[in-house]
UniProtKB/TrEMBL annotation:
The lineage of its organism: Bacteria, Pseudomonadati, Pseudomonadota, Alphaproteobacteria, Hyphomicrobiales. It catalyses: [(1->4)-alpha-D-glucosyl](n) + ADP-alpha-D-glucose = [(1->4)-alpha-D-glucosyl](n+1) + ADP + H(+). The gene is glgA. It comes from the Bacteria. ADP-alpha-D-glucose binds at residue 18. This is Glycogen synthase. One of its GO terms (cellular component) is cytosol.
Length: 485
């Protein structure tokens, strides 16, 4: 097996910095690829948490003026990850969220901040680090999407490039005047370049210039080629359909493992599924819900947003109550949704419980203790929470979109699909359809044999990166072969 060197470029990497699923992928994929002969180094920004972690890193390069201030490129490792870190304090030394201020507003210089990341990625692609000259530069989402553009406009021999879309909703849109400040030629302001409705889009640049485009599920790869699903970039993706593919995400099954998980009340396996009851009791106690093993407990771990369909779940709360079910929700996001969920919890103590924010330990307990996990997204590139639910015996209730469609086998479709059912899917994505599926799930919950079969089918599903990493390795090798003279 010929070794392959890949530089991954990501704005967040678990377990160092995480705001969403991108970090999980960026943290797990490099480790999974080692078994496939791929050596991956990951480039990320030097946020405060990153610099604290990399205090003993090796300095590779220093610049007196890098996009307006001094900067360094460091190398180090953490938790099996080989890292390059761009330490530019005037761009990254800021508290809190990597992308927004404490008020939830985008940092005004985000364009420069992430152009700087892409620029150094291109330089590493050109050989800035002689000990690691990559065969492929793999850019994740809009924050890294200028890397293929810089490599294109540098007009020099370059490595192959891959662009992965984690969510089409985030496109890195800025004023056209930014082009000069980030060192791209003005000729790039073109419909075949960065131009996007009079401004520029970093994501569009990556889609235009990457040799290969991937997204995180096969169904989402089809959805984003439509005008609605592509969110303004469907035409670009239709034109490049021959290099676009969907590769499902996996999860780190060493982190998400009910047999060894230190964050749950009682560890269990498929052979000891009865021990889940201790986690349900602990979850009910943690959320101040009425203690009852015979009441279906629904879990939600989500950003509270329109995309995630959490307004639809609010409309379905009367169904949850009338069916005698409970709801434990962990999440944050839209202020109005937060307020409405908290009001529902106050109005229904012991039945509805809400924790605003994100807590990794609590997320594990929800997976281990809830009977079903709800993901009612209007669109979902892949989704990771439903994969964790399968791993923990929480039966997923999901909308028929994107990766949710690809990863869950509906209870009514098991025979035709050839796979055992693992959950419930609903369409269209409406409150009425969700409510109907909740009623169906409630009826099934009280059929203990059928519910146990759903749980065991989920627990036996391979949600790891093993096969998915192999798909990326094959993509890399195919690209390298195609680029050979």
């Amino acid at each position: 097996m010929t070794p392959v060197r890949v530089l991954a470029v990501a704005s967040e990497v678990y377990p160092i910095v995480k705001t969403g699923g991108l970090a999980d992928v960026a943290g797990a994929l490099p480790i999974a690829l080692k078994a496939h002969g791929v050596e991956m180094h990951t480039l990320m920004p030097g946020y405060p948490d990153v610099m604290q972690m990399l205090s003993g890193g090796d300095e590779i390069r220093r610049w007196p003026d890098y996009f307006g201030g001094s900067g360094r490129l460091l190398a180090g490792s953490r938790d099996g990850l080989d890292l390059f870190v761009l330490d530019v304090p005037h761009l990254y030394e800021r508290p809190g969220n990597p992308y927004v201020t404490a008020d939830g507003v985008d940092w005004p210089d985000n364009g420069v901040r992430f152009a700087a990341l892409s620029r150094v990625a291109a330089d590493i692609g050109h050989g800035l680090v002689p000990a690691f000259v990559p065969d492929i530069v793999h850019a994740h989402d809009w924050q890294a999407a200028l890397a293929p553009a810089y490599l294109h406009y540098d007009n020099r021999p370059r490595p192959g490039t891959v662009m992965t879309i984690h969510n089409m909703a985030f496109q890195g849109r800025f004023d056209r005047e930014l082009i000069g400040a980030i060192g791209l030629p003005w000729g790039s302001f073109d419909v075949r370049g960065l131009e996007y409705f009079g401004g520029i889009s970093f994501l569009k640049a990556g889609l235009q210039f990457a040799d290969r485009i991937t997204t995180v599920s096969p169904t989402y790869a089809q959805e984003i080629q439509s005008d609605d699903g592509g969110m303004g970039l469907g035409g670009v993706l239709r034109e490049r359909a021959d290099v676009l593919s969907g590769i499902l995400n996996g999860i780190d099954i060493s982190v998400w493992n009910p047999e060894t998980d230190p964050h749950i009340a009682y560890r269990f396996s498929a052979k000891e599924l009865a021990f889940r009851a201790a986690n349900k009791a602990a979850l009910q106690q943690q959320f101040n819900l009425n203690s009852s093993p015979e009441v279906p407990l629904l879990g939600v771990i989500s950003r509270l947003s329109w995309q995630k369909g959490l307004d639809l779940l609010l409309e379905a709360i009367p169904t949850i109550l009338s069916e005698g079910m409970q709801l434990a929700l962990l999440g944050s996001g839209d202020r109005d949704l937060q307020d409405r969920y908290q009001a529902a919890a106050r109005a229904n103590p012991g039945r509805i419980a809400v924790v605003i924010g994100y807590d990794e330990i609590l997320a594990h307990l929800i997976q281990a203790g809830s009977d079903a996990l709800i993901v009612p997204s209007r669109f979902e590139p892949c989704g990771l929470t439903q994969l964790c639910a399968l791993r923990y015996g929480a039966v997923p209730i999901v909308s028929r979109v994107g990766g949710l469609e690809d990863t869950i086998v509906d209870i009514g479709e098991a025979d035709s699909s050839g796979h055992d059912a693992t959950g419930f899917k609903f369409a269209p994505v409406t409150a009425e359809a969700l409510a109907g599926t909740l009623r169906k799930a409630n009826t099934t919950f009280h059929d203990k044999l059928t519910w146990r079969r759903l749980q065991l089918s989920g627990l036996s599903t391979d949600v790891s990166w093993r096969n998915r990493a192999g798909d990326y390795a094959a993509l890399y090798r195919g690209l390298i072969a195609a680029r050979r003279p």
